[in-house]
Design goal:
By secondary structure, the protein is of the alpha+beta class. The chain has 20 helices and 22 strands. The chain folds into three domains: 202 residues, 2-Layer Sandwich (Heat Shock Protein 90); 159 residues, Ribosomal Protein S5, domain 2 (2-Layer Sandwich), CATH 3.30.230; 178 residues, Rossmann fold (3-Layer(aba) Sandwich), CATH 3.40.50. Strand 15, helix 12 and strand 16 form a beta-alpha-beta unit. The N terminus and C terminus are likely disordered.
């Protein structure tokens, strides 16, 4: 029943007005997505994006990003420097206005930036609000300006002093606020490096230097690619066999929309890998630029196939997925007034971009294929092979459709389902073998936990065509049990029967291999399961240490040694090493690995899509030489104690 309204106490005093940056500190997730690791790293990207926008305008060609020993980050560029004169509306300096006022910046009008990524005008002010302190230094007009802020509030006026040096640019140094990021404020080098490398590829000739000065040794990387996105494609296809060694490159500008496309087909790849960007922002949900690219690829390859007489008059056209099989591509568009769908900017909506991309790519690709007949024939043959493989798999797909959890009540006989029918609370453990499956079935909470045992190692779909995929019993069990639908079809979250898919394998080398095979399946078959955060790894213990009546589970060799170090020198204890999940009693498995209150899960996320694709190709692909080179390069650096997975 609704409560009785009390109009006497609900008055103007109850209306809260948040001044300045208070709103950001009150609801930080609205501005940076979360206060976890993703939001923490987003702070760095917001500051770097401002420097990159200077580079887009042609005012900056060097950016320095430093992780410092006190936990702060410094971003320095050689751009024009944030203006420091008094802003007519706020009465403060332009620098203080940018740092303290939401929706204040040089990207809303047409005079400062031709194109930019940060269009909401909340970037650096949000960083200021969510930092313990920020120090900004500006070099311009032979003066050095500086100001410090603490939790969004200026500490003192803007200072200035003259200098004879001709230097110009901006440095923003900030330390994330532990009051906001309660889970920790330590930055991961690999996450930042992936995005900075990506930005360097997208902005040819801009040098981005990344330094980790948190330890005595330090670490430094410089990203600068004169070839731009052509080098990006070359990086992604380095471990593959290209059909054409030279990368097809398209660039042009029309109606102030700049278009860059780089394409390369490979013989030993059976999926496409197309990355789309708009104003340097990764558009993971697609948009009109990707629609235009896919349409023109399909049309041009079909036209070429008919010119070469590889498709007869009565033959059906090749489908888009056939044409794109084995293709690696990067498309980057720069739009003066981009229309992004949603605050997350993951889909471009400008309708005019589709036609511009179609026109530029169609002209260049058709000309390239006409002047390179052997390459044209090889690309068409690859597409026709894909078409034939798809036809061979059609009956198998239809079998999967008939067995689909959506269209039939038939589920895999080995699946021990949960009683809940709410996918949001349901989770499934994918385990290897009947022994582990038996323990998991007995130890689970039947209300929301399902168990799917698999027999042996699943098919490596990196090397398999569609017909083999759909004929494989274990793959069929995964598809029907999870409600995945058909590969290549648009992913529908309504089909998914569980919102937590947990890979639970033995804590040894064989278990790691099984996890890798399953991750390859999910990444290649239904990538959005990974992108949307539905895939997890369960972490079973390696050891049980008993001392008297006390028992402690250890999840790695390092964990074990740390625990043993707490015992007196003459302590008596026993260590049990679990060789597999099947050795654990159901109650032990529940306590350590399945109980949401005590277990440890690792969510699988992808920060660097290009690097993930490259590693899957190296480790799971047909070619042995790149895999051997990878192992020889990295194997000696691997400490087995690090494999606490």
């Amino acid at each position: 029943m609704p409560q009785t309204l009390n109009t006497e106490t609900y008055n103007a005093d109850k209306i809260q007005v948040l001044e300045g940056l208070e709103a950001v500190r009150k609801r930080p997730g609205m501005y940076i997505g979360s206060t976890g690791p993703k939001g923490l790293h987003h702070l760095v990207f917001e500051v770097v994006d401002n420097s990159v926008d200077e580079a887009l305008g042609g005012y900056c060609d060097r950016i320095l990003v430093e992780l410092l020993a006190d936990g702060s980050v410094s971003v320095t560029d050689n751009g024009r420097g944030i203006p420091t004169d008094v802003h007519p509306k706020t009465g403060k300096s332009a620098l203080e206005t940018v740092m303290t006022v939401l929706h204040a910046g040089g990207k809303f009008g047409s005079g400062s930036y031709k194109v930019s990524g940060g269009l909401h005008g909340v970037g650096v002010s949000v960083v200021n609000a969510l930092s313990e302190w920020v120090e900004v230094t500006v070099w311009r007009q032979q003066q050095v300006f500086a100001q410090r802020y603490e939790r969004g509030t200026p500490k003192g006026d803007l200072s200035s002093q003259k200098t004879d040096a001709p230097r110009r640019g901006t440095q923003v140094r900030f330390k994330p606020d532990t009051q906001i990021f309660t889970g920790g404020t330590e930055f991961e080098f690999a996450i930042l490096a992936g995005r900075l490398r990506e930005l360097a590829y997208l902005n040819a000739g801009v040098a981005i230097e990344f330094c980790d000065r948190r330890s005595g040794e330090g670490k430094q990387e410089i990203y600068c690619y004169e070839g731009g996105i052509r080098e990006y494609v070359a990086y992604m296809t380095h471990e593959k066999e290209p059909i054409h060694p030279d990368i097809i490159y398209v660039h042009g500008e029309r109606d102030q929309v700049q278009v860059e496309v780089a394409l390369q087909w490979c013989t030993d790849a059976y999926n496409d890998n197309i990355l789309g960007f708009a104003n340097n922002i990764r558009t993971i949900d697609g948009g009109t630029h990707l629609e235009g690219l896919k349409a023109v690829l399909t049309r041009t390859i079909n036209t070429t196939a008919r010119k070469l007489k590889k498709l007869k008059d009565g033959d059906a056209n090749l489908a888009g997925e056939n044409v794109r099989e084995g293709l690696t591509a990067v498309i980057s568009v720069k739009v003066p007034e981009p229309e992004f769908e949603g605050q997350t900017k993951t889909k471009l909506g400008n309708t005019e971009v589709r036609g511009i991309v179609d026109s530029f790519v169609g002209e260049v690709l058709a000309e390239y294929l006409e002047f390179h007949p052997p390459i044209a024939a090889a690309v068409v043959d690859k597409a026709i092979q894909a078409f034939n493989a798809a036809e061979a798999a059609r009956r198998a797909r239809e079998l999967v459709r008939r067995k689909s959890a959506l269209e039939s009540s038939t589920l895999p006989g080995k699946l021990a389902d949960c009683s809940s029918r709410d996918p949001r609370e349901s989770e499934i453990f994918i385990v290897e073998g009947d022994s582990a499956g038996g323990s998991a079935k007995q130890g689970r909470d039947r209300h929301f936990q399902a168990i799917l045992p698999l027999r042996g190692k699943v098919l490596n779909i990196e090397k398999a065509d569609e017909s083999k995929i759909y004929k494989n019993n274990e793959i069929q069990a995964l598809i029907t049990g999870l409600g995945l639908g058909i590969k290549g079809e648009e992913f529908s979250i309504q089909q998914l029967r569980y919102h937590k898919i947990i890979l639970l394998a033995d804590a040894d080398v064989d278990g790691a291999h099984i996890r890798t095979l399953l991750l390859t399946f999910f990444y290649r078959y239904q990538r959005q399961l990974v992108d949307q955060g539905f895939i997890y790894i369960g972490c079973p213990p390696l050891y049980k240490v008993e001392r008297g009546r006390n028992a402690q589970y250890c999840f790695s060799d390092r964990d074990l040694q740390a625990h043993l170090a707490t015992f007196p020198a003459n302590a008596n204890y026993t260590i049990q090493r679990f060789k597999g999940l099947g050795e654990m009693m159901p109650q032990q498995l529940w306590d350590t690995t399945m109980n949401p209150e005590t277990r440890m899960l690792k969510q699988i996320t992808i920060e660097d899509a290009a690097e993930a694709d490259r590693i899957f190709t190296i480790l799971m692909g047909d070619r042995v030489a790149p895999r051997r080179e990878f192992i020889e390069t990295h194997g000696s650096k691997l400490d087995l104690a690090d494999l606490d997975i």
